[in-house]
Amino acid sequence: MKLEKSGKGPLVREIRITPIAIVDPPLLNAAGLHAPYALRTIVELETEDGIVGISEIPGNEAIDEALREASNIIIGKDVYQLGKIQRELEAWFGKDSSQDRGDAPWDQRKLVHIFSALEVACLDIIGKITNRPVVDLLGGKMRDAVPFAAYLFFKYEGAGGKLGFSKDPAANGWAAARQEKAIDPEGIVAQARAMCQAYGFQSIKLKGGAFEPEVEVASMQALYQAFGEGVPLRFDPNAIWKPETALKYGKIMEPILEYLEDPVRGQDHMAWLRKMIQTPLATNMCTTSFDEIPASIDLGSEDIILSDHHFWGGLRASMELSRVCTTFGRQLSMHSNSHLGISLAAMVHLGAALPDLPYALDTHYPWQSEEVITGGALEFQEGAVPVPSGPGLGVELDRSALATLHQQYLDCGLKKRNDEIEMQKVHPEWTFKKIRW
Ligand code: GKR
Ligand code: MG
To answer: What is the pTM of this model?
Structure first.
């Protein structure tokens, strides 16, 4: 591995974009039901010296297509020239607008995804060249391990994938527990016990928005009864509540919540509720880009912004967001979607570099049963993931797993996440509503 002469730096010679499908159980949310497979895209950049950097982003055919188009910009570029790469991508694709995010709980903007994919892979390469972990490129390690929260879901019975709504009778421990139905407080408490036992999580988040507020709030109360004050609890109905519903149930949950995530839709409604209840409000839906920060500050719409490097345009943008949050008296934590170990490694490097980490971060990782990195799933110790110590991201692509998961993508036929369509397969009359209760 050698540095290029005359300040030219290592140049990208090739980009490989591989869509994959990973088995996902039938999890419920405000937008419907998870499909039997979640889609991800694995990006590899290779330099002229043969150094390969990797990254992972949510899978979406249109974004993959745009990434292929971005090859024109990335090929031949010096991996250190991230500012220039970003400028050229913005000029080519035009800046994302807030509308492009979509109404679903997850983000569908192109540019943030593309830049995140390219930036993380470039940082992986730079780390390999300089023999430093990515966390060092973000400012250095503030902690050795990054804490995550148990992320609970209401769900139908089933393992997902080919098994769909049936269970694999050979599974044990958490692998068996994650197949169980959870549609009421008892099911949620059982899920929490099994997940916390397997991973050692010390904070708990419940994804709501799937059932009537009474059932979901009763589930939070049951978690509080089961785990006591020592385990911080959060609840996220993905903005499906009306303001008056959020006020009623926000007040009821005030004594038991660490924070309430996106109870209502939009900065105005969040700001209104913010003044009416004591519980801190968090968001990954109402303030989702730097463009939305001025209004968020003017209105006072939330206390905690849940960054996601896939949606905010990379790891360095998330570090910048942390500074903005500090300036305006906000906290920063992290949002997630179904993901594998490359994304988790990037999240851990970021989490380790953030100056302050007041809350355990979100991760869907326990719901996934497959991996695309060598050595299998990353390990959790008492709910935290130790920062990988190798150069770059510190994780390597398992080529045979990549090929298998790509074939699974081709076979499953899914091209884009659509939880409404999946829900209609079970309840044909069901339709997505931005605000339901
Ligand atoms: O995986 O169903 C899910 C979640 O609802 C996810 O899509 C959200 O983006 O985890 C997310 C959230 O915190 O809103
Ligand atoms: Mg959320």
So the answer is: 0.96
